[in-house]
């Protein structure tokens, strides 16, 4: 498949060309400059012969020497221009490729991104694109060096056909060896790039889970596993380097042998009076020059091979499906629009079934759920029941395979993804913060919010005093350790409530949170539920007790819905879940009162171990697979 001689080689070359063709004008100019520089290079030995021919004659040498000097100066200027031009072009090609891949990632469907390790996705932007650098100029280089080679051979033929014959033998031998070795060089390079991709994936995963790695005393084992990919890459690169070195050595030796042959045969022919001495010298100059196009050819073919491999890896990203930017159907009036202020539900699930892949079992099935415009709806259920999937459907990370969702009385299909999300606010379970300052994070959803608005939400999540106490206030970088895990959760919450959303979706942290964060969370839920819809994936008894309505999920279905007391009276699973949450809650409160007895604040105790940081190490899938403390209890409850 990687054999450039195979049928796949042409489409793969076309892939590489697709990166440079947008810059065809620059490429053409580079080619013309290259041809010009070649012509100058080819003319030099002929002018040298001219100088030598004037030696015995009465004619002046000034003219040919002046021409020779002019050729050198113009040749240098043209080469410089071409160098700069192609260097700039290469950087633009790399930039274009990076821009397109980065945009693709951010526009991609979430499920598509989660299929691949993020570190591997990163290497496609960083290291693969860098390989396009040399490859982009190599196309021009390849044409130039081929023409230079042909031109040199033609001029050699003009000087002496017999000598050309012996040169051609050497060139053909070198070409056959190169053609044999080049495909395996390409294969080795592609394998090296793939190993670098895997290395990026495993290293990134290990660094994100560094606490788990250390706590499991798995540094050495994990390190070895990652280093194995680095070794793999090195082994492939060494193989490529060895073969490249062989190609070079063979090319050099071939040319040197042919020069010796030319010298011998040429001297013999000159002695016989069949060849002028000046022609022999000019021929030898061409023979030395031959090394230029041949080594250029070798370099360019190598760069092209690496570029082709990189181009196909980058273009693979084009296969990642992106979210549509416009609504599938034109937007009609919503129930809310028709009635103005109304009590119609804000969100409705109608017989929704969804699966993550066509050949897998549905993650949720036949979901009928109505979320009122005001109030707090809690979703509870054992691990794997489909709670997160429900949120993914609301946020349109996932599309239903059957049934439909309605927002403000209108089917989701009549909205674009962006329009749907504009009406929602979401606090992830891991409450990740984006790179940057506290201000950057707060303004992430609404960049136009004023300082007063920021202050109001910070007060709402009880972070105002903390921010004031920081030297740099809102401009404190979140990479600094001055902000604890609980505080990060509150920042995420503040971001979500900055502008009152129609629906606040809150995936409650499963790990214990500090008292202050828990209190802030509950105040926010209560305040927001009074004016809008709040939907929580509840992991805490107090959140469940706060809810106006509770949906109990099991095996992808909603098995019961009602108030706490209704469900307690009617649903076995709910009773078990509540019992498990009660145990968890009493354990936590027990722990908190122990803290108080010891004179510690729960918040202080946990500051050393930031829940948010801890969870940042987990992939969403890991989280799903792994049992959270409360997840265990939920299951225990079920048992
Ligand atoms: N990205 C995914 N790809 C394939 N299957 C998935 C994916 N995410 C979830 N599932 C499956 O869908 C089902 C519902 O999972 P979901 O994450 O919605 O459950 P949950 O109730 O949120 O669980 P938890 O409380 O453990 O987070 C599970 O069987 C799970 O294995």
Automatic annotation (TrEMBL):
Pfam families hit by this protein: ABC_membrane, ABC_tran
Chain residue ranges for the region called Disordered: 584-639
Keywords: ATP-binding, Cell membrane, Membrane, Nucleotide-binding, Transmembrane, Transmembrane helix, Transport
Segments of skewed composition (Basic and acidic residues): 584-628
Organism: Micromonospora polyrhachis
Transmembrane segments: 24-44, 65-84, 147-177, 247-268
Compartment list: Cell membrane
Keyword ATP-binding: yes
Cellular compartments per GO CC: plasma membrane
Name of the molecule in the record: ATP-binding cassette subfamily B protein
Highest taxon of the lineage: Bacteria
Mode of membrane association: Multi-pass membrane protein
Domain called ABC transmembrane type-1: residue spans: 28-306
Residue stretches making up the ABC transporter domain: 349-580
InterPro entries to which the protein is assigned, alphabetical: AAA+_ATPase, ABC1_TM_dom, ABC1_TM_sf, ABC_transporter-like_ATP-bd, ABC_transporter-like_CS, P-loop_NTPase, Type_1_exporter
Keyword Transcription regulation: no
Gene Ontology molecular functions: ABC-type oligopeptide transporter activity; ATP binding; ATP hydrolysis activity
């Amino acid at each position: 498949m990687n054999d450039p001689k195979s049928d796949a080689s042409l489409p793969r070359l076309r892939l590489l060309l697709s990166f440079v063709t947008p810059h065809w004008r620059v490429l053409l100019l580079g080619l013309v400059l290259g041809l010009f520089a070649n012509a100058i290079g080819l003319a030099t030995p002929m002018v040298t012969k001219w100088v030598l021919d004037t030696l015995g004659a009465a004619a002046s040498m000034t003219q040919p020497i002046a021409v020779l000097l002019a050729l050198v100066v113009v040749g240098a200027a043209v080469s410089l221009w071409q160098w700069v031009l192609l260097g700039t072009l290469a950087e633009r090609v790399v930039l274009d490729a990076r821009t397109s891949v980065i945009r693709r990632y951010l526009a991609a469907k979430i499920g598509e991104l989660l299929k691949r390790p993020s570190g591997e996705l990163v290497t496609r932007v960083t290291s693969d694109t860098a390989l396009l650098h040399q490859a982009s100029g190599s196309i021009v280089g390849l044409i130039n060096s081929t023409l230079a080679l042909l031109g040199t051979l033609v001029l050699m033929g003009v000087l002496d056909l017999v000598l050309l014959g012996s040169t051609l033998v050497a060139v053909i031998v070198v070409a056959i060896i190169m053609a044999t070795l080049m495909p395996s060089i390409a294969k080795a390079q592609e394998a090296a790039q793939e190993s670098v991709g895997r290395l990026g994936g495993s290293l990134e995963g290990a660094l994100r889970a560094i606490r788990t790695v250390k706590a499991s005393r798995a540094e050495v084992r994990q390190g070895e596993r990652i280093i194995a990919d680095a070794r793999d890459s090195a082994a492939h690169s060494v193989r490529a380097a060895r073969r490249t070195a062989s190609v070079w050595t063979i090319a050099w030796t071939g040319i040197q042998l042919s020069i010796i042959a030319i010298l011998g045969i040429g001297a013999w022919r000159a002695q016989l009076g069949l060849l002028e001495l000046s022609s022999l010298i000019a021929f030898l100059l061409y023979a030395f020059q031959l090394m230029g196009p041949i080594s250029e050819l070798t370099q360019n073919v190598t760069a092209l091979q690496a570029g082709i491999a990189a181009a196909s890896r980058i273009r693979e990203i084009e296969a990642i499906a992106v979210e549509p930017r416009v609504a599938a159907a034109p937007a009609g009036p919503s129930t809310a629009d028709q009635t103005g202020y109304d009590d119609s539900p804000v969100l409705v699930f109608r017989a929704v079934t969804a699966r993550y892949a066509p050949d897998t079992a549905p993650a949720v099935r036949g979901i009928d759920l109505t979320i009122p415009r005001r109030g707090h709806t809690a979703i509870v259920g054992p691990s794997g029941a489909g709670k997160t999937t429900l949120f993914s459907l609301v946020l349109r990370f996932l599309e239903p395979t059957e049934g439909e969702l309605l927002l403000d009385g209108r089917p989701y299909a009549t909205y674009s993804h962006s329009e749907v999300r504009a009406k929602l606010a979401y606090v992830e379970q891991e409450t990740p913060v984006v790179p940057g300052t506290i201000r950057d994070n707060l303004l992430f959803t609404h960049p136009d919010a004023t300082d007063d608005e920021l202050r109001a939400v910070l007060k709402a999540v009880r972070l105002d005093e903390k921010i004031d106490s920081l030297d740099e206030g809102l401009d404190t970088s979140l990479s600094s350790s001055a902000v604890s895990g609980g505080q990060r959760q509150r920042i995420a919450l503040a971001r979500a409530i900055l502008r009152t959303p129609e629906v606040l979706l809150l995936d409650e942290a499963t790990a214990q949170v500090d008292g202050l964060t828990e209190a802030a969370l509950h105040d926010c839920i209560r305040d927001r539920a009074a004016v809008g819809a709040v939907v929580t994936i509840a992991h805490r008894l107090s959140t469940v007790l706060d809810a106006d309505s509770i949906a109990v999920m099991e095996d992808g279905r909603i098995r019961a819905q009602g108030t706490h007391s209704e469900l307690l009276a009617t649903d076995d699973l709910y009773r078990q879940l509540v019992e498990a949450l009660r145990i968890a809650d009493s354990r936590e409160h027990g722990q908190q009162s122990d803290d108080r007895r010891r004179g510690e604040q729960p918040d202080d105790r946990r500051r050393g171990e930031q829940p948010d940081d801890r969870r940042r190490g987990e992939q969403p899938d890991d989280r799903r697979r792994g049992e959270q403390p409360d997840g265990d209890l939920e299951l225990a409850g079920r048992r």
